[in-house]
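Quick one: structure tokens for this chain, please?
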Amino acid sequence: MREVFLEGEAFFNVRKDNTRPFIVKTSDLRLKVLGTRFNVKSYPAERITETVLVTGKLQIEEINPAADDKNLITLEPNQKRLFTVQQAGSNWIRNQRKRPRP
């Protein structure tokens, strides 16, 4: 398995490898890369995590030890997902389309 922990912002260009999945963890999310190019911004002081998918597919799982079920989201190209942390838990914000870069 290929796994990194991110605190800050990074752009990834990951080649698909079914024998060695690529996982990105932030303080609140676990992102399973399915062969893709994407950006993740996760600064603890901002209390928001932003993920923008450029190409491929990306599966996002909320890290919530108190929850029994998993909250899985799959992004398609040119989608952005915002995840906010609030005092009473966390909240998913709907997918927002993002225009591709020229």
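The two ends are 33 Å apart (CA to CA).
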